[in-house]
Amino acid sequence: MTQTTIPRLTIVVPCYNEEPVLLTSAAILGKILRQLMTDHEVATDSRILFVDDGSHDQTWAQITQLGHEQALFSGVRFSRNFGQEAALIAGLQTAHPYSDLTISIDADLQDDPTLIPTMVAEAKAGSDIVYGVRNDRSTDTWFKRTSAEGFYWFMRKLGVDLVPNHSDFRLLSRRVVGALLACRESKPFIRGIIPQLGFPSTKVYYKRQPRQAGASKYPLRKMLRFALDGLLSFTIAPIRAVLYAGLLICGGALAMLIWILWTHLHGTVVTGWSSIMASLWFLGGFQLIAISIIGEYVGRTFTEVKHRPRFIIQTDTYSPKFSTTQPAAVTLHFDRHSAIK
After folding, report:
1. Which domain holds residue 205?
2. How many domains is the chain partitioned into structurally?
3. What class of enzyme is it (predicted)?
């Protein structure tokens, strides 16, 4: 994406109970964006957009305060918690009509915000996508580091194109955001979708910093759910694995039948119920696993055909700053990207 004019940039920051770090992060991001404006790298009406994903603390109050104090800051507030991916999509969708470039970054700023000017420069040089990629996982626990490496390896073996050690710190051009929003899944796996869009891309590398305050919003349960979403969103390999396992078990059963016939012919029948029970338990467990895997796909199909909104926006203080007319007091859009303004 080669820029001939000064681009308007929006930094999208998903937030969930980020009261301990939000004001500090806002000050850092604000300083970086102002410098970019001063250097004429981005337009003077560029913005920082916080997306409050149904926080229960004072996160939204802080976002509102920041917006009142400085036009640089604005926010979008969900009616309830919809999740990290929904918050990202909401921020990108809100910024898309008004922004030439968008950068997403987590509110804790463990990703290096000082790379934002480099990302803007890479976009001006012709890249539509700039990935922020970690070159050091020393701040992670052994379990998290090992499980992440295993996840990327497994997804690569299944043919899913992911950028290893990349989270949600990235720059996207307007046309990339448009293509991403055209993907209509109710639960999009953004890290897998973006590499499939096929636009010119590059990477910038950084060392992830320890979290300064607050707690991680990704415990083991959410990480496992995230990995499962990525797996089931891009491949039917689990169903094929069940098929191959079923064929293997059928082959084993056939071999067992031949062995039983051989023992009968030679009069060396082995009596006992333990082997029978073991086989029954094994086959029963396998059937339950197979049904569960298939059920996951059927459940996702059920979710998609209902066409319920990915999120519901309760308050939007970003769009009115660019609109020529004030939005209606309450506007409901009954589609995948429902919003109340």
Report:
1. 9-218+312-321
2. 2
3. transferase
Length, in residues, of the chain: 341
Return the number of other C-beta atoms located less than 10 Å from residue 144's C-beta.
15
Residue type, 114: T
Residue found under tokens 């396992």: 245
Residues 6+ apart with CB under 8 A from 314: 77, 78, 79, 340
Say if residue 52 is in the same domain as residue 177.
Answer: yes
Find the CATH number of the domain harbouring 17. 3.90.550.10
Q: Are 313 and 65 in contact (CB under 8 A)?
A: no
Query: How far apart (Å, rounded) are the C-alpha atoms in residues 284 and 301?
Result: 26
- Does residue 247 share a domain with residue 171? no
CB-count burial class (<10 Å; 0-12, 13-18, 19+) for 3: middle
Q: How far apart are CA 297 and CA 287, in angstroms?
A: 16
| Residue 145 confidence class, pLDDT cut points 50, 70, 90 | confident
Q: How many CB atoms lie within 10 A of CB 46?
A: 23
User: Residue 142 pLDDT > 80, yes or no?
Assistant: no
Sheet holding 101-104, edge to edge: 201-207, 129-136, 166-173, 101-104, 9-15, 47-52, 73-78, 313-316
CA distances from 323 to 8, 64, 98 (A): 15, 19, 9
What is the token pair recorded at 308?
A: 């319920």
- List pLDDT tens digits, range 61-95: 999 999 999 999 999 999 999 888 889 999 999 99
The residue with greater pLDDT, 331 or 177, is 177
Q: How many CB atoms lie within 10 A of CB 108?
A: 23
Domain presence at residue 336: no
Residue 116, H or E segment: helix 116-124
**Ramachandran area for residue 113 (φ above 0: left; ψ -120 to 50: alpha; else beta):** alpha
Q: What is the pLDDT of residue 277?
A: 56
- 101-134 pLDDT, tens digit each: 999 999 988 899 999 999 999 999 999 999 999 8
- How high is the pLDDT of residue 27? 95
